[in-house]
From TrEMBL, chains A, B:
Database matches in SMART domains: FCD, HTH_GNTR
CDD domains: WHTH_GntR
PANTHER family on file: HTH-TYPE TRANSCRIPTIONAL REPRESSOR NANR, TRANSCRIPTIONAL REGULATOR, GNTR FAMILY
UniProt-recorded name of the protein: FCD domain-containing protein
Ranges where the HTH gntR-type domain occurs: 17-84
Keywords: DNA-binding, Transcription, Transcription regulation
InterPro entries from the UniProt entry: GntR_C, TF_FadR/GntR_C, Tscrpt_reg_HTH_GntR, WH-like_DNA-bd_sf, WH_DNA-bd_sf
GO molecular function terms attached to this record: DNA binding; DNA-binding transcription factor activity
Natural source organism: Sinorhizobium medicae
Keyword DNA-binding: yes
Amino acid sequence: MTDKDSDASSAPERKRGSGVKMVYDLLRDEILDLVLPPGSPIDEVQLAERFKMSRTPIREALVRLAGEGLIATLPNRSTMVSNIDFLNLHTFFDALVLMYRVTTRLAAEHHRQEDLEVIRARQAEFAAAVQAQDALAMIATNAAFHSAIAEAGRNPYFTGLFNRLLDEGRRILRLYYQSYDDRLPQRFVDEHEDMIAVIAARDVEAADRLARTHAEQIVEQIQKLFARKDRLEIAL
Amino acid sequence: MTDKDSDASSAPERKRGSGVKMVYDLLRDEILDLVLPPGSPIDEVQLAERFKMSRTPIREALVRLAGEGLIATLPNRSTMVSNIDFLNLHTFFDALVLMYRVTTRLAAEHHRQEDLEVIRARQAEFAAAVQAQDALAMIATNAAFHSAIAEAGRNPYFTGLFNRLLDEGRRILRLYYQSYDDRLPQRFVDEHEDMIAVIAARDVEAADRLARTHAEQIVEQIQKLFARKDRLEIAL
DNA sequence: AGAGCGATTTTTGTCGACAAATAAAATACA
DNA sequence: TGTATTTTATTTGTCGACAAAAATCGCTCT
């Protein structure tokens, strides 16, 4: 599967400051989409020749990824994709539920007209992804939908924290969606519609309530999933 | 003031992997303690000769700091210490209050016996700093106190988010404490004692209530401060 | 044959140097 | 004298190379 983007394009020229960002973005996506599963070794020289650049910009991208906890670096030895902490999964869900509630509540309070259009656009993309049964697109558009709601809440700290959590969760969600064979989430589409309605109505309490049940339902589904497949085949 | 640590120690040898961490830690502290005020230019070569090392490890440290938003990098031009966003200060306080509440609440729920000892130790250090009227120590020990409470809550995501906020706030708190001439915070010492008591009693609702009033009181003081000094002399 | 020890290989951390990009200075021109 | 343009200088981004650490392999000795 040497897919999508050919790293060695015919033009060997690359714009000056773009190296690190390109490597960072691509590696990050590959990690979050489980193309690079947890535990995968990260080889600097391999990446260097893959992107046809020196090790220096690669290292800077890796430092950034390490700063976000996506890769783990043993002092003088290898560096690899960080593991998912399955044991403390419930703490992650607690945080996720809270941020769902807070951001949705704030959106109901502070959103402007333009925000709603953005949110509806994201919701349309999510619905399309569900229709097409495209798991990766579902994850991405679902995150974008809730991220747009958070943006409408107009608190950059909360949106920052929330996006951070959504990223963390992308790997877990990836497991979730791919296990359910890309069906089922039609229900989420409807719930999203309800959330948009209460936000538009500026019904803060209802927004909080909906966000809570929405989040808790997702959490319940995922936990059910992890209870079934004994976590042995996925944990490494 | 060529203080504390002499960068050029008699031994020109430094341990192999320690360069980036040393630069990162020091720069980070200098930024958060306002030794490097917002807007200060960061010169790579200057740092390089100051630490007697190449620009490569310095750059990696800077990349990490930029990842945390502590420094801002103009594409091909200079990099400098990020500004404090005074305009959206209230959003920061909203986030801070919420995290105070959540972490204290969880601490009341999930703490163990050992946690209380750690918390009490931090509280003692904070009281000592207040007694000594040492502003920097007050900030550090206050943050450590609340961080210990968060740890007792046993949710690494919340502690991570919370510590992040506390760091962000260190610069603002620095302004706050240095303006009040290092007196007044005796009241906080007492409130901390109350918080410890309700946590130990596992009174979740009381913990939430205390954390909320404690946080909101701090916020109110700081906002009062920023209303007075017209923010002109401090904003740059 | 197995364990201990030294040499080789691999990978990381650091270095000095070069080239692109931008700002600052100098020059020309109206 | 003021403005546009070229030249210089400063600073960043990238490169190839070297040296330290760790792991791997091979050898020796009992």
